[in-house]
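hey so i finally got around to running the thing on that chain from the lab meeting. sorry it took forever, my laptop kept dying and i had to restart like 3 times. anyway pasting the input first so we r on the same page abt which one it is
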Amino acid sequence: MNRMFHFHITKQNEEEAIDFFLKSHGFSRHIISQLKKYDDGILVNQQHQNTRYHLKNGDLLRVNIREESPSKKIVPVPMNLNIVFEDEDILVLNKPADTPIHPSLNNYENSLANGVAYYYQKEDSPFVFRCINRLDRDTTGLTIIAKNSLSSAILSSMVSKRLIHREYFAIVQGNPPDSGTVDAPIGRKSNSAIERMVDFEHGEKAVTHYKKLAYKNNHSLLKLKLETGRTHQIRVHMKHIGYPLIGDYLYNPDYTYIKRQALHSYRLTFTHPITRELLEFTAPLPGDMEGLVPFSFS
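ok and heres what got predicted. didnt touch it at all, straight out
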């Protein structure tokens, strides 16, 4: 997928080398290296320039990111995508349950990546799949797809700096306190390639804040905010404090009320990687969670 950027140079950036200027705008070394491969990758006043060129007040710098082939090993497959937002740089989707993010050995054609690949194939646009906030197969809700290498690089940096704020809804077993914070490191369970556990000796820092919204029939609806993004963080932390998610095949395999872990990515708040506009998106509870613990979100 191609993306062209225009920069009008002012006195503030006068005499900066193009290489320095682009890095200050989030372009990685790899992206800049790719730009050099094309005659129209970097243009100043419609003329090709190398990255050592020093910009002048009034210059028009044009940068053309080009992708000529789609992601390998992702088969385009028709899928009903629930698109919450789309522009030239990002795609925000509301992911359904029973849908892994990426293809794998046993899920080669039923991942979100397959559906996105088909969506852009119809537009005859080569697309490299870059998911920013990955969700478990059975976790529903909001996820961000970067549509070009620059938005991906900037958003990935924002993730590492904890600048993408995520809120979840979960239904747990039991009646926890009205609010609380779980600060407990998470590591891989020694006898499992998938399962995680609280590990105070070898685990990585993990912090989850929660607030109880409603309680009924020994089930509680929680709103959770993540400071960190460890694998299975909410699921592991809730089990650790004695209130596991219902329907969780790894940590609480009780399918009496729901057939998958009752976890939903409800809200995303972040700054747009290119325009710097503050964005906020929400996705309503899916049908299999709605009504289990009645609560008005109005």
